[in-house]
Amino acid sequence: MARVSRVPLSFILSSKNPRPEDKARLDKFMSTFRERSKEKIAREFPHLPEAKID
Q: How confident is the model at residue 36, as a pLDDT?
């Protein structure tokens, strides 16, 4: 089982050469961040129409 890093994501972002396991954790977080943000906004503001951001 992979060791879970306790390093804050902000530290990984600011690091010039993060460890591979930290970089993988950051990549996984960022890949799901956009979808989770969309879901949260849709819950908080259901009356807003879906906008194309890209």
A: 85
**Residue 16 and residue 19: Cα distance in Å, rounded?**
10
- Asked whether 26 and 4 are in contact (CB, 8 A), the reply is no
- Cβ(12)–Cβ(26) under 8 Å? yes
Query: Would you say 5 and 21 are in contact if contact means Cβ atoms under 8 Å apart?
Result: yes
0.70 surpassed by pTM: no
Distances (CA, A) of 29 to 8, 23, 37, 54: 12, 10, 12, 20
The parts of the chain modelled with pLDDT lower than 50 are 1
